[in-house]
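Quick one: co-fold with pyridoxal-5'-phosphate.
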Amino acid sequence: MSVKHLACLGGEPAFADPLPVGQLYFPDWERYEVAMRGIFERQYYTNHGPLARQLEARLEVFLGVKHVVCVTNATIGLMMAAEALELSGKVLTPAMTFLATPLSVARCGLEPVFCDVDPVTHHMTPATLEAALEPGVSAVLGVHLWGSAADTIEVQKWAEKNALKCYWDSAQSMGCETAKGLIGGFGELEVFSLHATKIISAGEGGCVATNDPDIAARLRNIRSSYGAGPAVSVVKTSNGRMSEFQAAIALLSLDDFEMNKANNIALREVYMSELCDIEGITLEPLHGVIASNAQSIVVRVGEDFGVSRNLLKDALSAENVLARRYFWPGVHKVEQFMRQPQWNLPQTDQLNEDVLALPIGSRVKGEDVGTIAKLIREIQRNGAQIG
Ligand SMILES: *Cc1c(COP(=O)(O)O)cnc(C)c1O
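Sure, here it is.
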């Protein structure tokens, strides 16, 4: 494709249809139809049905953990997790995350306390945790982003040293592996999202993985007022059940995982070669993993690019390239979570200003990446006119 005239300067958009940043891998219609027909024939629609049970068993193998509890979405999974762990007071978590992380804490009547992240890896470290520790903190809620991973073992050791529980928002990390093991088996438990934007999708969905049978039993009793498995005493029940429809889609998505991961990795390689010579644009490497789902393409837009990150985002949007600022505004700038004196999180502030996620996933083809790179070059070349 030849980029003749940028859309932000009055030209036609380079893409007729919007290119999103989410994964959006869905099974083809024929397989979907067979799965849905099975549900209607069994007339078993929800409440820990055969497909939900099958999905849990398969995810236990896939994640290498003893227990997987499937839930409606990761946000409620995180809320159920805080209750299953019987947390109190404050929960220490990185501000470099999606809003659902601190929201899950606040919705359980707990107070999120934010720590900063390492500028190179974008993840929390024992040093950033140490700097943010304050009285009243009962747990650490770690976060993995982009298909990279925090140093699970070091964070866990630090938590233990401070007598804190440690659990993980691994919403983006399905199928990632660190040198110390698969994401899923660390801390007290890990919560994954099966949202449509994530690599394994139920449309909406999530699951909690743990090796602790007591935590798993509590989660199963919190998930539904009907319970599932042996009854154990929990403070509150809820409705976090996964329907058979969600489980059916997730099972097909799990079958496709290797193929979709390979597609992500191939796209990532095209991005690497296309973006490497654009001044001021740096594709973030994957950190802390020996195998990644390559969930996100994250670039940092430096001053030497010549056009601001926000103007670049707007100019790409005009071309139907729906680049996203991750995360904007930072969760510590959201009214509900602000406090006085203001959070002092310079690395997170910097990343919130610099980072841009570019399209990857089912809607993106290799040649689209070439077009996106051309557009970025063109936007840079026309910087003076754009702003
Ligand atoms: C997607 C995501 C969530 C929320 O997952 P849902 O299934 O949509 O509730 C939470 N945390 C992070 C880091 C995410 O990326």
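If it helps, The two ends are 25 Å apart (CA to CA).
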